[in-house]
Amino acid sequence: MNNPIVRRELIGALRKPNVAALEVAWLAVLAAVIVLRWPAGGRVNLAGTQAQQVLSLLSWTILVGMMLVAPAFPAASVVAEKRSGTLALLLNSPLSPASIYLGKLIGALGLPILLMLLTIPGMTACFAMGGVSLVHQVLPLYLIFIMVAMESAAVGLYVSIRVNDVDSGIRLTYAVLFVLDLLLLIPYRLVADTQNPTFLLMGRWLASFSPLPAMLHVLGANSVHAGNSVNGGSSVIFRFVICALVLSGVLGLLSIQRLGQWLFDRPRASGKITDDRSTKVQAYRRIMYLWFFDPQRRSGLIGPFSNPVMVKEFRTSRFGRSHWMMRLVGICLIVSLGLMLAAAYGSINFQPQTLGELMVMFQVTLIVLITPSLSAGLISSELQNQSWQLLRVTPLSPASIVLGKLLSVCRTLLLLLFATLPGYAVMLVIDKGQASRVVTVLITLGLIALFCLMVSSAVSSWFRKTAQATALSYGLLLGLFGGTLVFWAGRGTLFSLSLVAAILKYNPLAAALATIHAPGFNDYNFVLANWWFMLAVMGIAAIVLVFRTWRLTRPD
Amino acid sequence: MSEAPVVETVELTKIYGEFTALDHLSIRLEKGQILGFIGPNGAGKTTTIKILVGLIRPTSGKASIGGVDCTSDARKIKHLVGYMPDTFGSYDNMRVREYLDFFGAAFKIPRKQRQDRISASLAITGAAHMADLYVESLSHGMKQRVAIARTLLHDPPVLILDEPANGLDPAARVEMREILLNLAQRGKTLIVTSHILPELARICNMVAIMTHGKLRAFGTLDQIMQNVRHQRMIEIQLLSEEDVSQAAEILRENLGQAANVTQAPSEMMVRFNTTGNEQSLAVALQRLVSAQVRVSQFREMQQDLEDAFLSVTQQDKAQATVGEAQA
Hints:
The complex is a heterodimer of chains A (556) and B (327). With 556 residues, chain A is an all-alpha fold. Chain A has helices at 4-15, 17-37, 49-69, 72-84, 86-91, 97-117, 120-129, 134-162, 166-181, 186-191, 197-207, 212-218, 235-258, 279-288, 308-316, 322-345, 352-375, 380-384, 388-392, 398-419, 422-430, 435-460, 466-489, 497-504, 508-515, 527-553; strands at 223-225, 228-229. Chain A has two domains: 4-39 and 46-264, no CATH class; 312-553, no CATH class. Helix content of chain A is 72%, strand content 1%. In chain A, strands 1-2 form a two-stranded antiparallel ribbon. The longest helix of chain A has 29 residues, at 134-162. Chain B is an alpha/beta fold and 327 residues long. Chain B folds into two domains: 7-227, Rossmann fold, CATH 3.40.50.300; 230-300, Alpha-Beta Plaits (2-Layer Sandwich). Helices cover 40% and strands 25% of the residues of chain B. In chain B, strands 6-7-8-3-9-10 form a six-stranded mixed beta sheet, sandwiched between helices. In chain B, strands 2-1-4-5 form a four-stranded antiparallel beta sheet, with helices on one face. In chain B, helix 3 (96-106) crosses helix 4 (111-124) and helix 6 packs parallel to helix 7. Chain B starts with 6 loop residues before the first strand and ends with a helix. The chains are: A mainly alpha (556), B alpha/beta (327). Chains A and B meet through helix 15 and helix 19 of A and helix 2, helix 3 and helix 4 of B.
């Protein structure tokens, strides 16, 4: 505690009213979880089944809580200081970059550890019920939680050092953790049937960056995906701990290296325009950027039929510029075509359903990751930058502002969705009978995109800081799309099938997977119920967004 | 007969709970006038400005620009006013030309005219060379110019500039002064707030001094100076150091203790304050000359806007102290 940054970070975090609210909410959730699964009959199963059920629900809740809370503070920590100018003061002090980093890391771990401490009474109650092993379950679970917190903090701090604004830090951190925690499970899923030891080993190690296999192992379920084991006994936990430590260590070293004085050694953008450069450079850039996508091209004036807010959003968003959009679309096309080629040459023995599952997972992941980053700052960033009052003194109506902002995100999402469509063509070539399913999936995907857009935009209108709006948007969407899948992963073992079906009804990803008859989702049919759910939420979100925007444009 | 006012507030009041941010403010500005709006922090300047541009609703009273009510017809007001807040409100990733293009489009300036307007606005504010630069890469002074250019885009008759000279270096301040004078010459009515009073004094022909939400002084710069000039400070330059004490004694005898006569022997100078007129000053000078005091200069020290402002705020403090004592 000799490090002054640790004290300041800890005290600063604990003084925040929203942290106090978070602690109260956390306790309420834990209590609710325990009450929900606590045996009501006054009798306890000697085999420990009930204790295991309480333990698993409680543990998954803690894990999801850790995944959502642990990255939030470190992701904003350094970049906020960079923006306010206090990082320059810290770097100018006798504190070394290593001690600054360690101070930030320990400070960032303070809140997750506090939240973990609050779970001890619940865990003790599970243990006291009998049938729960301290050595094989409780302690490994806490080890996993600590590793998740440390991995999240390391990722958050590294990202925070690299970015230039708080909301980018939050967005990127959650995106990286989403990849680590969920997407890295996919390669193992793909190679599980090949029996190729090299692929299996690589898949296992990649999956070990995610805490989910370790959690499932500790809680007695065998696999992330039913029937496909990622485990190898206690080595699952060992691999996860090793991966988390290595990742945290590497990111720590990179962060310390970057936290030098030269962090600020950047010239101001020179504002070069291709039109003003030599003929040779002009020709080169115009060929390389296909003329229209050159970021240094002098852009034209906003057209008479264009919504100025929409054009402004494209121009101000880093990924809204056409060259970035084209890069993103290009990557989507490559992935989609890659899948198509793999299927066509039979290098991977895909059934249409498996291909459909992959396509749906890929598209929904893209939508869930990209939409909040584009829309959670639609209103809040204007309020944060104090540019909202400039918009208020223009004759733009609230409807025009909302429409322009929503359209700007819609175009991006549409481009992404279209870029990933070729994969479905492969499905139809393999099995023409899939046509109606593909159409239903596409409608579901369109609704998912609108759903994410409306939820994030509505959240955005309630916050004056984009980082908060982004964090909440990601929290809500990842909780719905990813969090509810945890119940599916433990179906039949940890959770009853009826409970899983009732919960999955609200998960749009599950609805899309069920429509495409993806393995593990064949038995479900709730696409219509899910559409109604999404439409209802979108309606509420639209009302909230329009009302808040109207309110914000009115005189105070 | 005076012209119709371009900007007018009548008994404008804004109350937040128990706090009165603005207390019955009445001002009137005519075309081409530059109003220097001065007062300490929290005096109510920004509240007034925000009411004028339709961002805040007054609790009572009226505010109008060009005869249009600022509260009930906020949409029309937006076309009549160019507002530059004290914060820039920038958008990252945007070039200056794109930034102005967006606001031009927001004000529904036809595309054909917009390019010319952007170029003209940038030229007036001396920012033409910044058109292709990214907004976030601009220095503070450059941003201030771009912000003024933005206010000019839709060619409003009234410009309201909140702290345009804030944070500028001396050279940039001089340039800013020239820009504002140029705008007034083009027939714009300007309301400018600033803490840099000597700068304001050089450009404003009207001054409003506010403290605690109340208008303490309003009028032309000369009127303000006359009103706040309760005591004139006179400075007498002597030829010899020995004359200093003698001169001080004569002045004390003639003017009394209230004159607060001070001596500066090393400077061969005597200073005193007086509320007397020219006649009484002539008598004092005559007495010094008859007493063989060798006077080389007898002059009134010039008071500036800063003195006027301090005088008003000191009166305000004194009144507050008396009020507290009575309470």
